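Notes from the pairing session

We agreed to fold both candidates in a single pass and log them together. This is the raw record for the first candidate, unedited. Please don't reformat it; downstream parsing expects exactly this layout.

Candidate A
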Amino acid sequence: MPVDVTQPHIARIYDYVLGGKFNHEADRLAAAAIVDLVPPYPRWARQNRAFLGHVGRRWAEDGRTDVLDLGSGLPTRGHFDEHLPGARVLFVDSDPLTVAQARELLAGTRGKTYLQADIRAVDALIEHAATFFGDARLLGVGCIGVAYFLSDDDLGGLMRRLHALCAPGSALALTFHEVPPGPDYEASKEALLTSARHARINFYLRTPEQVVDVVAPWRVVSRHDLDQMFPEAPPPRPEHPMHRARIHGIFAER
């Protein structure tokens, strides 16, 4: 698939805000426009990728050799292929351009495959994963930076099917957005959801308790506030209500 670098693309925009090199001027200009609309976007992207790196290192220490990653984006800047070089990794993304570029980046990398699939089409996803991993179903499942784009029905259905696919002892890592309770809760929530509507995307905020329910029958064993886990300098617009929203990362077990 030919790549038109004069048009911005979300995977390259994400790579840019992470400090990567697989982006172009159109992507950098689009990133500036997104940040104007959603000021915390670069911090959220860095925190999601930092958590992914933490997950990758943890799974490497645990000796995990099979990983299914959902909503992968481009495999750059510390993705699972870097932290788990000896593992089999099935990356999944729905965007055809992202998949085409990712396959180029992974060309010649043993055990790493990129699948184009919509994770809401669960039957096809599970079928591909079952074929790729075969009888080896002791998996690490990454759902980092993607769960908050799925409704409760879609996310809950996906979690149940993944739980059935995986063998006991499998692990799940997932991130989600929350606006903590406080006097400006409603303003912060409305600012975030309004920006999502302007961007024409579905975006779902969840409390930690709601996440425990929606990922069941996976059993949540730990939760981490990524602002505390990966602290950064105060944002340049700390008064903006969207900065109240936090990202949490969870680990769950099968």
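Candidate B (folded immediately after A)
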Amino acid sequence: MHAHPVEGLNLERCDTCRGIYLDEGELLTILERRLGVQADTLQFSAISDAMDAVAAICPHCEQLMPRIETSSGLTVDLCRDCKGVFLDEGELATLQLERG
């Protein structure tokens, strides 16, 4: 994971799958500021699609992150302990566009 600065936030991006880890509250901040498309691509890669079937481990507390399905049908990983969210490449931009 490497820091990916976007409008004063340091998002963590996985070098392998290009997914983004967001600390508690960062997702809401990004959606409120309408930064989703700036922080993410609109493309879903084959890797992103395959990652929905892979369990994520929280990079901060190293706990298994259960998958949840959003109202729009996206599958995201949520850490129960630190409340962080892991989004596969393209999911942040998709959430932003759906939110309008």
